[in-house]
Amino acid sequence: MNRTRLALATGGALAALAFTGAVAAPAVSDWWDGRHDEFDSYATGAAAKADRASVPRWLPDDAASVEYAMRTTGGDRALKAVLPSTAPPAGCAPLAADASRPAPALSTDLFPADAAGKAAVRCGLYYAYVDGHTLYAWQDNRDWIKDNKAGSPH
Prior knowledge:
With about 150 residues, the protein is an alpha+beta fold. It is built from four helices and seven strands, in the order H-E-H-E-E-E-H-E-E-E-H. The longest helix is centred in the first third of the chain and has 33 residues.
């Protein structure tokens, strides 16, 4: 009788452990990986900058449909917006052909998969390109750390 109870208890514990591993663990992992990521949408660049100090000041006030993502534990940022023209924002400088182009670190649906290779300009610490009227821009945490160590103003 004790062996039967022990076998049932062991079987139940193993079933619960298997359930936790198959169902709960992936959900916890997804939450854990994204717990410091924040996403917001704004009607205009002016509204985005008014709401968040971390939105870059070079974003035109009249940019529309602004989507912004940031990691609260560092400098990774992602920005997508519709610009009034097909030109990059004022103050953006062309990237050298041999310059590194890190991929956006945030897991978002804001960018096409090949965004890193399309970066054509630097806007402050952001890598960016314009496709039609749509601006795609992202900031890499490593650049942000270097900039902070150098004491540059943001």
